[in-house]
Design goal:
With about 110 residues, the protein is α+β, with helices and mostly antiparallel strands. Helices cover about 20% and strands about 35% of the residues. Helix 1 packs antiparallel against helix 2. It starts with a strand and ends in a 17-residue tail after the last strand.
């Protein structure tokens, strides 16, 4: 089992979620976050460089079985990219998921996902 965490631009959320739903990937968690990754050229203020503020982003989390990791990542990469790719389009993190437990039924592991 894996946990896929994607950080994307807010304007791409609808496009990404619609593409995931078309492939029957409907169990996702979405949250609004702020941050910045790569350094974008800062502004000069009174002769000193001013750092960039945190930018609004969207965090998507998807717990899945190993067989779905590539498909999910391909969908996110395809739909979250702006016009061939621009700085700040986002990142995808894939982490091992040790355990998953469905609270309602008590199911564990890949069956709970």
């Amino acid at each position: 089992m894996k946990m896929i965490t994607a950080i994307i631009q807010p304007d791409k959320l609808d496009e990404v979620s619609e593409a995931l739903i078309k492939k029957d990937i409907t169990r996702i968690t979405v949250g609004r976050v702020t941050g910045h990754g790569q350094k974008i050229e800062g502004d000069l203020y009174r002769g000193q460089e001013v750092g960039m503020d945190l930018s609004p982003k969207i965090r998507i989390e998807i717990a899945c079985n190993d067989a779905f990791v590539k498909e999910i990542c391909d969908i996110i990469i395809e739909t979250a990219k702006h016009d061939g790719g621009k700085l700040g389009d986002g990142k995808i993190f894939i982490s091992p998921l040790e355990e998953c437990i469905r609270i309602r039924t008590g199911q564990r592991g890949s069956e709970a996902i």
